[in-house]
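Q: I have 648 residues here and want to know how they pack in 3D. Can you give me a structure?
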Amino acid sequence: MTEVGKYKILSKLSEGGMGAVYIAVHPTLNRKVILKQLTLKGSSAFSERFKREARMMMDFRDEHIVQVYDHFKEKNSYYIVMEFVEGMTLADLIQQKRYLSNEAALLILREIAKGLKYAHDKNVIHRDIKPANILISKEGKIKLTDFGIATSIEDTDQGLTQEGTALGTPAYMSPEQISDTKKVDHTTDIYSMGVMLYEMTTGQKPFPGNFSIESIGLISKGKYTHPRKINSRISGSTQSIIQKAMHCKAKKRFKTTEHLESRLSRYLSKYKEQEEINLAIKNYIEKDELTVAEKIKKKAAGFTLKISSNLFKILFILLFSFTAMGIGGYFFYKNGYYYELFKEKEYGAMDITLKFNKEYREPDQFYIKAMLLTENGKGKFSPVKDIAFNFQEDQLKEDKIYYYLRSDKVYLPAGNYRLQIFTENQQYTEDFYLNPRISQKDKRETFEARTFNLDIEATTPLPLTFNYKIRNLETQEDITKDTELRVYLHKLKGWWSWESISSHSNFKELFTTASEYTFQFKKDGFFTRKVFVSVKPYETILNLVVDLVPVPGTLQLKTDTEGLSVLINFENHYFTGGYNRSYTKIEKTKAGTQKFHLSPGIYTLTIKKNAFFDSNTVSAVEKIEIQPEKTLQMTVKYDKEKEKIEIK
């Protein structure tokens, strides 16, 4: 193939059962383009999605989304002509770097969020956000592609997606997308972005990439390894974004991509211009560092002036005069320049730094309330209005043992104050005099501001209340009463039965918070299960619900006849028993023996000759009982002359 329509083919990038992807030349633009082909051999639903992707993207005009130029039909194929992006995918970058730095991952995610915001504003949901669908050009531009299974909130797929079906890539799909693709909204794309941020910063996916019962269960419950346990360099802020974006409940995620973009911008304020962002990403790919290109540095340096202190103040007075009515004035106040330059004899600056052990809890889970009161005479204090201490993780302090949270800098009139800090079950109160900036700058320790440093100590272990419930995984029946429970106390390094430990005279000292426990659940007919739990100092109640997996039995079916249909409980699929459960299709009989591993219980076994039940169907039905670790042997005989099936 040398030409398709008016496009000259340069090379073939890939080919599959449904079509191919080519690099071609646009005849009028005289530039390389991507030619995406779908053969008409595919289903009508695939064809409709392909055409709809073309129509949808033809209307898109955003620098963060791949541009579509044309779409047409040629012989037995449909084609989409789209922008050629020379570079790599995000999946390639992750594989190349193993994992990305916090700043690089957040910067790339914000660029993706910009493209998604554009699509969401047009009521389009992508539904297949993953690293392979994120393109990174050689110039560092981030572009979103492959809207093949995207849907419009307005047209609701127009019947292309059947109710109850799942479209997308399993490892990146939200719980609601797995259960029913038709019921998703924009928060599904936000969930997928959270999964991508997890993968960018750890080099691993949070969930297996399949539709197994175990995988679906983990996704639906939001159970995955915390990213910082995989990569300790992940900041608390990054992990907080991952957890919120990936929440298993859609209502608890970021409300919109704009909300997510705003949160990311808190940590990326130094990247303002698009050119600067692209160059930073380009340098990260090439040099493994987020540095801005020299020409931008020189450009910025050209505006740096060495001026006297008095001239500096005059320039700022002029600047303030021109910008006080708008954003400039707000920025001027917000960053404290006004107080530093014009109120240094009247106002002082203060901030707060909190330090606590990483084993205690994550920064975004930490309860902090700081209040400032001012003395109004005779030792009485009243709250200072319009003062809020916003705490964020201090990214400049890297420590393997401790987290550091630092508040914004606050400017206040010099005078007497009382600071009160409430954290978890601790309270800190200090009365102090805040010196003006002119005095603070004379001392090294207060040159930037007066900093109040507070070390948060772990609380004394408290008695732990333990509630548990054991269920049969298959039937969800409560089997707590007949299940043996043993506990391994890590502080004593020994196993105890629950009866002996709960009745021990020192139970309240032995079973406490701030400790680790391994629980073992054992019951006849079930696999023994161990559950490890690490209890934080502030967690005084532990509720544990555990599903035990029944030990399977085996149904052994022997026959000399080929082509008979086998149904279990009137279905041609069944769940295999044991830990590695899977939804398996039952094949027709072959001469010999077939084995079925089933959970214990009563089943209806049906053997029939015809594919469907009707008045002429030749069949036999038998009730069977499967017992744990036992094999039930059944023989199937088909008498062709009498048109009769027997199960023995």
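Q: Anything worth noting?
A: Confidence is low (pLDDT under 50) at residues 152-166, 293-308. The first strand starts at residue 3 and ends at 4.
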